[in-house]
Amino acid sequence: MLNKVENRNKTAIAVKGVLKSLIFPLFSILVSLFVAVFFVMWAKEYSITQYFEALADLISVIIRGSFGDTSKTLETMVFVTPLIFTGVAHSIAFKCGLFNIGVEGQFTLGMICAAIVGLIPGLNPWIHAPLIILSGIVGGGIWGAIPGYLKARFGTNEVINTIMMNYLALYLVNIIVLRTPIGIASKASTPIIQESAQLLQFSPASRANIGLIIGIIFAVLIYWLLWKTTVGYEIRAVGINALGAEYGGINIARNTVLAMVLSGAIAGIGGASHLAGVMYSSTDLMGFIGYGFDGIAVALLAKSNPIGCIPSALLFGALNSSSRILQLNSIPKEIVYLIQSIVIIFVATDYVIKYFENKRRKKGAIVNG
């Protein structure tokens, strides 16, 4: 009887914790929509008394543009898939107290590795597709390991290192595409990968592919790793209190490198899946692709929960997918970026509030002591 009561109490506490963690993300979404409507009113010349009409117009256009029919829904999944990977990649780093700005570069490295491995002829699809995923793990993992090692060994700032690694990844891809036999200089791209390396599409008329399923699987696996294993416990312990974790016998340097490798590997898989499922070749890059940076917003809105990154990626993917339809309905596509920015600001505010709350508690503990 006592066990049943204890289980019920634990369940109630867990549910209460989940609901509490959802308050800020949901509130940030509502506020972002509230502000965005004023720009819709300005663009379409609504009067102030037509606020709710403008709100309904904005929401309906976003829904129709991203989920209006089967083809639009599948196209939205093309945007959602890489955001799941990059969101989960950022979540791993956040849980270890790290800010891996280099997810963009690790995603890019995953793409070029997949472009190279995808050119191998004569392989069975059941072998070639896993090799594509493995190439993304290796490429992204190595690119994450370098700043992770520098942080652990020399204490250098991972933000600065990963930003530089992003540019190195960009230029490395361009060198491979433009200056090596792998690329076709006249086309400024690599050849189309073998058909055996291309990920299965959900429909011949859509670019959506099983990369979405792969992303969901890895999100669940990372959640299991972080919350159900000793390795994940140590990573989270370092993120919560590095000195306390070290006092408890946890190796900070090892877990720092491990978190960056895992983060880079997931980002690399995302890049490999995007190339094998959507792009089929790597091109000369004039700038960053952007999925790595968008993944920051995905992870923040999900409160660094890998499974929470799935609905979070769905939201941002739907916004990106509907941008063209917004323009056709006389609504500036920049509203998408406005909504994303406000969400990030409000979610970040939650972290700031918690920071000062923890600081106040520590000061109170010292005074009482």
UniProtKB/TrEMBL annotation:
Gene Ontology annotations for the cellular component aspect, listed alphabetically: plasma membrane
Record key words, sorted: Cell membrane, Membrane, Transmembrane, Transmembrane helix
Main location: membrane
Keyword Membrane among record annotations: yes
Membrane topology of this protein: Multi-pass membrane protein
Spans traversing the lipid bilayer: 21-43, 76-94, 101-120, 126-146, 167-188, 208-226, 257-279, 335-353
Cellular compartment(s): Cell membrane
Top-level division of the source organism's lineage: Bacteria
GO molecular function, one term: transmembrane transporter activity
InterPro entries for the chain: ABC_transp_permease
Official protein name in the record: Beta-methylgalactoside transporter inner membrane component
Organism, scientific name: Clostridium magnum DSM 2767
Organism taxonomic ancestry: Bacteria, Bacillati, Bacillota, Clostridia, Eubacteriales
